[in-house]
Amino acid sequence: MKQGRTLPDLAAELERQANAKRDFLAPAQTIRLRSNGHTELYLNEPFAVGEIAHGQIAEYAGVPKGLYDRLRNAAEGLRVPVAQLADCPQALPDGGQLAFCKDEPLFDVVLNRLLRQCGGEKRLVRTLDGKARAFLSSSYNPDLDNWDVLRVAARALEESGLGPENVVSCEVTERRLYLKVVSPKLEAVIEPSNLTRAHGGHHMLKEPQVVQAGFVLSNSETGLGSLSVQQTVYKLQCTNLWTIEEGYRQRHLGKTLEAGDDGALYRSDTRQADAKARLLKIRDHVANALDETRFKALVGRMQETAEVRLEGSVEKIVELTARKFGLMQGEKEDVLRNLIEGADLSLWGLTNAVTATAQKAESYDRATELEAAGGRMFALPAAEIRELVRAA
Fold first, then answer.
1. Whether the Cβ atoms of residue 209 and residue 200 lie closer than 8 Å to each other
2. What does the pLDDT look like over 154-196, one tens digit per residue?
3. Distances from the Cα of 112 to the Cαs of 19, 42, 50, 210, in angstroms?
């Protein structure tokens, strides 16, 4: 499991962001993009555009992201003449105005014209530290935010008899907030098969492996996923973590937003009351994630994987795993290395190899995705398991 911030550092950063963020609601036709070495989004003032917002703008405008990035990165090299009214036009006989041509980046011309065509449809622009970090629908609920989520989660931990010492990893990235919690009250043992054959052909006696129940709470303020609580299992020996996809999800949808003349959002009492009711559900779903019956059922599935031997070519099995779960080339190589070094050629050993790879991931977001990939292996249908372990 990849480590992030300390819990006090996380709390301090979330409180800072809560005080620094600014949200604006504006008709799409009034929003302008300007590129000059970098892209800025203009409302009443300019904001640098973050990568997440770039992707959302491209999707909203209907421009394929690959083409959008090519236009953006070549903004200075791809310019077109655009007719504009003169700043100080002289009166013409027919009452018109003089016009002139000015070169503008093709990116600006295309995107701004597409935004104008969207008319008065309003967009929520979420900003932080001078950067437009998200470009969202006016029905997006901005009140299910990270600082409030953390405070409710703290109360949920207390009600479950847990405390800050049970938070084994936490982080906030541009994409998501993560809080990973383990409960020592729910513990079990996975008994690997004693017939495991190491890569060199030796028989090895595998030690029982202790696991504990837990959950991962995650949330996004930038439209990249729901507020969710998911069941996890944590292995003490090597701090591997598996995330199980079943769990509670709360989408960030609510009443249509309203704003003042300056575009700043109104603080609606009705909207905030709705958000509070949704946040309180976190406590119930934390309790569900730490339910003893659910934990025992999951441990049972894990134990079954320990008895499923990898019968095919190790290299082919890892290659098929990479295709099935979207592993990159370097990750595939790490999984193969972990599997061989772990000397546990079972499906359980393969899931361990995947989650061990998460510890070396470049980003916390990607590490969490790999932990979820390891968790999905316990839910594979029997036919897919046979295909995987017999790959040759």
1. no
2. 988 888 899 999 999 999 999 999 999 999 999 999 887 654 4
3. 31, 11, 17, 57
Q: What secondary structure, in 3-state letters, does the chain show?
A: CCCCECHHHHHHHHHHHHHHCEEEEEEHHHCEEEECCCEEEECCCEEEECHHHHHHHHHHHCCCHHHHHHHHHCCCCCEEEEEEECCCCCCCCCCCCCEEEEEEEHHHHHHHHHHHHCCCCEEEEEEECCEEEEEEECCECCCCCHHHHHHHHHHHHHHCCCCHHHEEEEEECCCCEEEEEEEEEEEEEECCCCCCECCCCCECCCCCEEEEEEEEEEECCCCCCCEEEEEEEEECCCCCEEEEEEEEEECCECCCCCECCCCEECCCHHHHHHHHHHHHHHHHHHHHHCCHHHHHHHHHHHHHHHCCECCCCHHHHHHHHHHHHCCCHHHHHHHHHHHHHHCCCEHHHHHHHHHHHHCCCCCHHHHHHHHHHHHHHHHCCHHHHHHHHCCC
Residue range 260-304, pLDDT digits in tens: 555 565 555 665 676 677 777 888 888 888 889 999 999 999 999
| Nearest of 204, 179, 202, 180 to residue 193 by alpha carbon | 204
How far are the Cα atoms of 18, 57, 83, 212, 387 from residue 372, in angstroms, in the given order? Answer: 28, 28, 53, 16, 21
- The number of angstroms, rounded, from the C-alpha of 270 to the middle of its chain's C-alpha atoms is 28
Distance CA 311, CA 299 (A): 23
pTM for this entry:
0.83
Give how far Cα 314 sits from Cα of 173, 319, 324, Å.
35, 9, 15
Report the DSSP pairing between strands 177-190 and 209-219. antiparallel
The reported pLDDT for the residue numbered 271 is 59
Q: Which residue has the higher pLDDT, 306 or 244?
A: 306
